[in-house]
Amino acid sequence: MNISSPWKLMALGIVLMMAGWIFPFLMVLHVIPSTFFLNFMSYIASVLGLFLGIWGAVLYAHSKMKK
Predict the structure, then answer these.
(1) Is 2 part of a structural domain of the chain?
(2) Is residue 1 domain-resident?
């Protein structure tokens, strides 16, 4: 799977950031149990989503500057 496309990276970043927001929200509502692993994975998903979204935006801007 080739994820080097800027749009794919930004979409993946948005999905990961949403997961990093939805899981803690469900934990606060006691829909899912709050575990250390799930808390850690939510944090990692949020940070990784932010990084991938920014990287996708940089790649998009770089490709537009080349043209």
Answers:
(1) no
(2) no
Q: What sections of the chain are H helices per DSSP?
A: 6-28, 36-66
**54 domain residue, yes or no:** yes
Residue 58 is which amino acid?
Answer: V
- Roughly how many angstroms between the first and final C-alpha of the chain, as a whole number? 26
Per the structure, the count of domains in the chain is 1
Which residues lie closer than 8 Å to 6 by C-beta, 6 or more apart?
56, 57, 59, 60, 63
Question: For 31-48, how does the pLDDT look when each residue is reduced to its tens digit (9 = 90+)?
Answer: 999 999 999 999 999 999
- Residue of 2 and 65 predicted with greater confidence: 65
pLDDT tens-place string over residues 15-32: 999 999 999 999 999 999
Which residues, in sequence order, are CB contacts of 55 under 8 Å at separation 6+?
Answer: 9, 13
